[in-house]
Amino acid sequence: MKKYLLLVLALMPVLVFAQGFQVNLEGEKQIGMGHTGTGTLQDGASVFFNPGAVAMLPENYVQAGISPLVFMSEFNPSNSNATFRTANKIATPFTFYGVWGPKNSFWKFGLGIYTPFGGLTDWGDSWQGKYALESLDLKTIFFQPTLSVKLTDYLSIGAGFVYNHADIDLHQAIPISNSAGADGQGHLSGTGKGYGWNAGIFFKTLSGVTIGLSHRSGVSTSFNGNAMFSVAPSVQGNFPSPNTFTSKVPLPSTNSVGIGLYPSPNWTIAIDANEVNWDVFKNLSFTYAQKSSTINTTVLPQNYEQAYTLRAGAEYRGCPKLALRFGGGYATAAAPADFVSPQVPDANRVYFTGGIGYKIASHLNVDASFEFEHLLARQTTNAYTQLSGTYETNVYIPGISLSYHW
Amino acid sequence: MKFLKQHYYIIAGLLLITACKPDIKTPKPTNGAADFSRYISIGNSLTAGYADGGLYLAGQMNSYPSIVAKQMQTVGGGVFNQPLFNSDQANGSGYLQLAGFSAAGSPNLTPVTSNLAVRGQIAVPGFGNVTLYTKYTGDIENYGVPGIKLLQITYAPYGNLNGFYERLLPQDAPNNTMPYLAFITAKPFTFFSNWLGNNDALAYATSGGAGDVLTDPNTFAALDNLLIGTLTAKGAKGVVATVPDVTSIPYFNTVTVGAIVAGVQQANPSVKGIYINALVSGTTYAPRLATASDLIVLTFPTSKIGTPVTTPFGPLPYGLTPYTPVDNQYVLDENEVALTRNHVIAFNSTIKSVAAAHGLAVFDAYTFLNNVKQYGLVVDGVGFNSGYISGGIFSLDGVHLTPRGYAIVANQFIDAINAKYGSNIPETNVAAYPGVKFP
C-alpha cells in the first residue's frame, strides 16, 4: 500500500537525572549539631569534615554509623488538584571512620568510608511524570585514606585521597503503547567510579575558639552499565536491547569554613558555612553502545548553580556520660527552577536536628541523632519534560553510631 | 537523668512527625461564573470520540467531551451520558488497527470487522447507501455525530442520511424528520461545547476536492449565528472551538510527492515526476507535474504508479504521463489547498466573532494544532508532533486523535473555560491515556 512511508519514532525517552543530591549524613554527633563539624573536634568524622583536624584528635577512633532515611515527596501538577507521592522507601547512608596515630605524636592516619551523594525516589509506574522517571536509586561510596599533621599545638593540616564507587538504578516509562495499551519500560543499571581529594586546616586560637577550613574536590564519576528497553515487539528495533551505556556525572566540590565556640565547660557551639560548587553540573550525557533513531547519545543541560548552606548546632554536657545536641540549618537549591525534576525535587531546604550521646563504657560511646528536613514547596516547569507542578518534600532521618576510642 | 527524661519526650515527638507526609495545598476546584450541572457537547467525529477510521466503544470512552465532563464533576458537573456501543458490539462501525510494519517501515493496517454494531443498510434514492447501526435509547449528553457539517444542522431529512445520527433518533430511516439543531436543544442544559465546522472543509479536502464541496462562508456564518444564538437563548454558557487547518493533518502530509517520485526514480531514473489532474480555475482541471505544494492523501495506493492504463495512444504508465494523471480523488492540489485554507480561515473568523458576541470561551484549535505541527509539543515528558503514527496525537486514520491526543485537547478546552469563566476545573493527566497501540 503506502510503500513510500517510513516510520521514525520521534518520542522522547531521554534520561534526565539531576540535582542537589548531596546527602549530609557523615557522623551522628555532627548530625545532632546541625551537620556542623568543620571547626570542631568531635571524633573520627573529622576525616570527612576537616582532614586538617584529624591530627588534633586526642584519641584514636574506630566508629561506624547508619542513618536510614525516608524521602517523602509530593507532586501537584499545574492546573490540577491531583497529587502524587513517592513510595516510602528507606535509603541507608552509612559511615565508617578509623583514626590512628601513636600517642602524643604529631601525625595521625585516618580512613573514611561514607556516602556523600545519593538519592532514592520511587514515584511508581502510574503517576503523571512516569515518562520523566519512575524510580531512581543512586548510591555513592567514598573511600578516603587521610594523613593529618600537627604543625604546632595550634595548627594542623591534613589531606586525603578519595575513590568513589557508585551504583545507579533507574526506571522510566516509554510512551509507546503495546497492544494492551501498556507503556514501554526503560531500565538503566550500572556502576561508576571517580577520584578526588580533600584537604583542611584547623586552628586553635588563644581565646579557645577553634576554626576550620576544608575543601573537598569535585569527583567526576564515570558510569557504565546495562540499558534494557522493553517496548511493543513491532518497534523493539528502534530500541536496541540489551544495550550498554556510559555516562559522566560531575559531583561538585565543597568549600567549608567552621568555628567552634566554648562559652562554658558544658557547652560547645558550632557554626559552619558551605559553598557547594554545583555549577560544575552543566550537562549530563548518556552514550549508548547500540544506537538507533530513537536511542542516541543525549547531552542534557542541567545548568546547576552554586549552592550554599549555613549550619549551626550546640552540644550540652550536663553530666560526664551524657551529651545532648541540637541544631539546624538552611540550604539553597542547586537546580534552577526550569531544571527541577522528580529524580530529586530540589528546593531550598530547612532542617532541624537533635541528638544524644551516651558513654556506655570507658572507651565506648553510642550516639543517636534525628533529623527532620523540609524542602520548601517549589513550583517548576522542567525545560525538557515540561513536567509542570509543585513539589514539596519532607525527609526523616534517624541515625545511630557506635564509636570505640582509646 | 533529668536530661534523659527530657529526651524521651523529644523522641516521642519526632516519631509523631515521622508520620507526616508533605501536604501541598492544591488549588480548590470552583465553577466560577458557569454552571456545569448539565453539560452537552455538540460536534462531529472529533466530539464523538471517533478514531482509527471508526467509531467504537474504546474511542467513545476517551472522547474529549467525556474527559472534560469528568473533570467538571469536581466543580458541580452532572452525569455525562454518551451514546456508547454496548460491550458485545464494542467495535461499533469497525476500525483500523496496526498489524505491524513492512521491512521498509511502512505500517500495515488491518480492519477490525468482528463485534460490529451494524444493523443493516438502506438505499436512499438520490443519495446512496446508508449503513445503519444498533439504536441507542438512553439519555445523551454527548451529541457528537461523525460526518456532520454545520451546513446540515437544520436539514430535516439528515437523520436518514447519516447512520451515526440515525442511531440516536427514535425513528428508523427513512422516517426521520428531526433536524440536528432541534434534537440537541430538546432538553434544557446549562453549558455546552461546540466544535462543528471541520467537515464543512474536511470532506472536500479528503476527497481530493473531487467528491464534496466546501460550505459557502456566508451560509456558514448564518448557520453559526443560528446555532450559537439558539444554544445561548436560555442563558447557557459555553465554549467553542475553531476549525483546524485541515491541510496540516497527517492525512495530507505523510505520503508526499517527493517520496513517491524518489521511489519511482529508484527503479527508473529517467522519470521527471508524477502527473496529477490539477485545478486551474473554477471547475477546469488540467494535467501537470505535481509539486511539493500538492498534497497526496494518506490512502493513495502508491503501488498504482506505473501500472499500465489503457489510453487512445495505447497503454501508458499510471501517473507518469499527462494522459494518465493520478486520479483527482487522491490529490488535493495547490489551488484546492488554497481554497480549503481560505474557507477555514473564513469559518474561524465567523466562529470567533460569533463567540465574542455571545461572551463564549474559545479554544483556538486552528492555532493550537498549527503550533504542534510547526514546533511540536512536549507534555509530561512525551514529545508530540503531527507526524503520522510517530507523532502520538493522531490516530491511524491520520485525521482523528488518539486517546492521548483527545486528552490534550480536553485540557485545552478546560483551560479556555477556566480563563473565560473564572472557574478552576482541574486538568486531566494526559500520561494516563494511551497513544497509538503497537503490536
UniProtKB/TrEMBL annotation, chain A:
It comes from the Bacteria. SUPFAM superfamilies: Porins. InterPro entries: OMPP1/FadL/TodX. It is found in: Cell outer membrane. Its main location: membrane. One of its GO terms (molecular function) is long-chain fatty acid transporting porin activity. GO terms for cellular component: cell outer membrane. It is a multi-pass membrane protein. Keywords: Cell outer membrane, Membrane, Signal, Transmembrane, Transmembrane beta strand. Belongs to the OmpP1/FadL family. This is Long-chain fatty acid transport protein. It comes from Mucilaginibacter gotjawali.
TrEMBL record, chain B:
It comes from the Bacteria. GO terms for molecular function: hydrolase activity, acting on ester bonds. SUPFAM superfamilies: SGNH hydrolase. InterPro entries: SGNH_hydro_sf (IPR036514). This is Uncharacterized protein.
